[in-house]
Amino acid sequence: MSEAVAEAVAERFTRLYGAGPEGVWAAPGRVNLIGEHTDYNDGFVMPFALPHTAVAAVSRRTDGLLRLHSADIGDGAGDTDGTGGVTELRVADLAPGTDRGWTAYPAGVVWALREAGHEITGADIHLASTVPAGAGLSSSAALEVVVALALNDLYGLGLRGWQLARLCQRAENVYVGAPVGIMDQTAAACCEAGHALFLDTRDLSQRQIPFDLAAEGMRLLVVDTQVKHAHSEGEYGKRRAGCEKGAALLGVDALRDVPYDGLEAALERLGDDEEVRRLVRHVVTEDERVERVVSLLESGRTREIGPVLTEGHASLRDDFRISCPELDLVVDTALAEGALGARMTGGGFGGSAIVLARAADVETLTKAVQEAFARAGLTAPRVFEAVPSAGARRLA
Ligand code: GAF
């Protein structure tokens, strides 16, 4: 399967650039099992990689040019003979804020590598991705990480997965201008097949937690609502600023430093700033939920994580206030039809929800969610099963 993908992407590269690539790499999208909006609070997260990947065929150049092409996005999408739609940039001219399109992600990675002192003298890159865009499944982090890994290998930089993740986050924060945390890039770089990644975003220490639902007669469904509400980026920034305000008022470096058993005292200290109190309560309880899920999984009590996921959704909906009617509809319908647990995943305001279900209930649940969307006059959601898959890797 991945051989055929690598071959197809390499073949398109050859048509575009006139010679075969030096190699082909892949990096996955992710779903987050639990630990939402905790990563920019130095807290815990637990994503796993999807089988959907961004694939890059890449060759080095020595003349300072960066040539970028995508099969799925931007100008390349409408390119029928496979040779048009190439964006050409000079690596020396790359500067934050100069590019608002998809090319900002790969170009931002080249900029971040050079800014960190790595000598990148140019590259030809062709990208193709199966990670659904705008679905809260980290299609942009997949693009960043696949390019970072390819350049790391080709230029012999010797950087580890977590170091590539940090550079990709810098590309996204500074070059693209999105104030995201470190979860998505680390998930794309470091996840392993059959496992969820328990990550401490403060020091990036990590533990691979075996996560094989099929063996236990369960499934995890991803329901992409196909909606993305306007202003989601601005709302993300507001939540982040609110959390930072909470940490400052409490005199801690980050909300991660507020212990779960000190939550009530912390909320009292915040007085009547209701908004900050809600944000703080979400982050502190969410960190505790991640630790609870890890301990349940490690003691073989997988089914019991369901209610913890559902609690997480309530906290995101009521305290963090980033859910939306479509995500709530998925969660409520799935739970009413016997799901073991359900929650929104990712940044919020649309995108995807996850549903933990007994294998035998998958069909009924899927149908129930689809019918509920149809009754509400909404676009049909895309439902698929998420199997914990491999992180970034070289394919050829
Ligand atoms: C988005 C961000 F990119 C992540 O860093 C994280 O904050 C997530 O939203 C919410 O948990 O995916």
UniProtKB/TrEMBL annotation:
Enzyme Commission (EC) number: 2.7.1.6
Site (Transition state stabilizer): 30
GO molecular function: ATP binding; galactokinase activity; magnesium ion binding
Catalytic residues of the enzyme: 184 (proton acceptor)
One example of a Gene Ontology biological process annotation: galactose metabolic process
Domain GHMP kinase N-terminal: 105-190
Keywords (A to Z) from UniProt: ATP-binding, Carbohydrate metabolism, Cytoplasm, Galactose metabolism, Kinase, Magnesium, Metal-binding, Nucleotide-binding, Transferase
Annotated substrate binding sites: 36-39, 236
Organism domain of life: Bacteria
Domain GHMP kinase C-terminal: 295-374
Residues involved in Mg(2+) binding: 140, 172
Location(s), subcellular: Cytoplasm
Gene Ontology CC annotations of this record: cytosol
Residues that bind ATP: 70, 134-140
InterPro entries attached to this UniProt entry: Galactokinase, Galactokinase_bac, Galactokinase_CS, GalKase_N, GHMP_kinase_C_dom, GHMP_kinase_C_sf, GHMP_kinase_N_dom, GHMP_knse_ATP-bd_CS
Domain (Galactokinase N-terminal) ranges: 11-60
Catalytic activity: alpha-D-galactose + ATP = alpha-D-galactose 1-phosphate + ADP + H(+)
Coiled coil: none
Classification via PROSITE patterns: GALACTOKINASE, GHMP_KINASES_ATP
Similarity-based family: Belongs to the GHMP kinase family. GalK subfamily.
Its biological purpose: Catalyzes the transfer of the gamma-phosphate of ATP to D-galactose to form alpha-D-galactose-1-phosphate (Gal-1-P).
PANTHER family linked to this entry: GALACTOKINASE-RELATED, MEVALONATE KINASE/GALACTOKINASE
The protein's name: Galactokinase
Lineage: Bacteria, Bacillati, Actinomycetota, Actinomycetes, Kitasatosporales
